[in-house]
Description:
By secondary structure, the protein is α/β, with parallel strands linked by helices. About 50% of the residues lie in helices and about 10% in strands. The strands form two sheets. It has a seven-stranded mixed beta sheet with strand order 3-2-1-4-5-6-7, sandwiched between helices. The protein is globular.
Amino acid sequence: MKPVVGIYGLGILGSNLARNLGLRGFELALCSSLTDSRPENRPQQVISRFPELSTAKGFETISAFLDGLIPARIVIMMLTADESVDEAITVITPHLSKGDVLIDGSNSHYSDTTRRYHQLKVSGIHFLGCGFSGGLDGIANGISVMPGGSEEGYQIARSVLESVAATSVDGSPCCTFIGPEGAGHFVKIVHNGIEYAEMQLFAEVYAILRYAVGLTPDHIAEVLSAWKDTDASGYLLDITLNILRQKEGDAFVLETILDSAGHKGTGVYAVQAAAGFGVPAMMITAALHARYLSGQRHIRTHLDEVTRSQPRKNASMGTTDLYNAFQLARIINYHEGFSIIRAVSAHYQWNINLAELSRVWTNGCIIRSSLMNRFVKLWENWDDELVLHPEVKTLIAATWPGLRRINHVSSSESLFTPCLVAASQYIAGASLRFPAANLIQAQRDYFGSYGFRKVSDPTGPLHHFPWRN
């Protein structure tokens, strides 16, 4: 049978997507990226490694690769961060026709996706920027799929994209059309920003239990395993429990790993988007900067001589407080992510449906969890910020004291817990009880005559004060 889907780029991402589609019975055409010279990524090498690709056809040239597809042709580019999507489009599009669908499955910046969408629209080629999330587990169990761009192109490729998706809480595929232009890649960027902060939160919980309380990794796993029956359950908790229990000989594998965290850029994109649209993203920013700091080994090595000399004591705390602190911080993290999406969606008039997006994130993706399941219902009849929802406000009132107590323990033990602190500080900063930004506004008026508004008339005209008189 003639292939119905073409995959261009056969690195880890491309070969895994091919395996996913192969397991679901699709006839595939496979072609390596022209910039990828690794022998293991040649089409026949990939096909020979995986039984689920036994019926796939491998091609060494772009023309043969695309000529082998059934119209309307569906081509999915799966390129790594160091491969140019624009170069791939340049070599692929001369062989495409009006009505064909070209999908970028890499983590492209959403503004580039918007540019490419309009560029290809002129020639009648449907361009989709599609966020995929799920890791290696998604090969067998399905992934979360976030397509944006040409809605007509999505309808053509819909059966393909839905086939590789996990199943959401309501039994439908974790795949939906996000919106036009770069909307699909944008929500994937925010997904990864939320992921950064949630991973950092797990690291901070680990640090508290390991260094303040003194538990070994396997004992920490025992504590956290009780969370599996709560809203804290999810993919990241599951893999964290597995990691904590692994040993090589007598040593825990975790404690043999250098504490220097890497990143691939999407966290940066999320922070840039938040800054560009004036949306506070304190937790995502803290998580990104924590990764930066973890990599500055020369600074950490020298300052360790100072910090290690500080007096330490055994901490005492309740596990209920730790759970509440973790959950409240996650709520603030999701709120910040959804706030970024709301702002950017409104600016570009993408009309992103947050209930549908939450549903797509209930399974398949890295941040899937029981908590995300609740957001699907929360967003169905709510069109304001997440933290203002009555259910969330009640949760904040009940759990913020516990978060503050946990931060006190962390501070007294000199532990680095930037996301837990950022979550608490977000709540404090969102209050009107202790105003301090009025001083900043006064300073701006003093040196730049920028003006300020009065408490008695917050939407009224700007005022100036003769500070130097």
